[in-house]
Amino acid sequence: MKKLFKSLFLNEHLILIVIVINAIALFLQESGINHPSIAIVDLACTFIFIIEMIVKHLTWGFKAYWSSGWNRLDGILVLLSIPSLVVAFVPTLAMDLSFLMILRVLRVFRFFRLVHA
Fold it and tell me: Buried-most residue among 12, 28, 63, 114 (CB within 10 A)?
């Protein structure tokens, strides 16, 4: 099971696909298309990013994870996405978090790391 998690969540190409799907979902939401399935896709992507971060921490360690500039960007964006998860499950805490959603689109910049490598 441990190998499966590592092979899935350390696979940059798979994570890039999730990033693109998430960027499309965020774009649609910000365009005013608020279909429940789009929100579910966004939440699923956020959970995947959280699991990816946890797997990387467990695999590489805290210090090694945060020593990479790309991981720092990812980690900060994942942490910024947590309030949107809380609001999704506790609607009474609803507030305008659209600025956090826009910041999460920055994850697409990970694509440049793959192209650069």
Answer: 28
Closest CA to 43 of 7, 82, 17, 74: 82
pTM over 0.90: no
CB half-sphere exposure, 9, CA atoms < 13 A: 22
Cβ neighbours around 33 below 10 Å, total: 10
Q: How many CB atoms lie within 10 A of CB 41?
A: 19
What DSSP string describes the chain? -HHHHHHHHT-HHHHHHHHHHHHHHHHHHHTT---HHHHHHHHHHHHHHHHHHHHHHHHH-HHHHHHSHHHHHHHHHHHHHHHHHHHHH-GGG----HHHHHHHGGGGGHHHHHHH-
Structure tokens at 94: 């609803």
- Residue of 111, 117, 107 whose CA lies nearest to 53: 107
Q: How many Å apart are CA 74 and CA 17, to the nearest integer?
A: 15
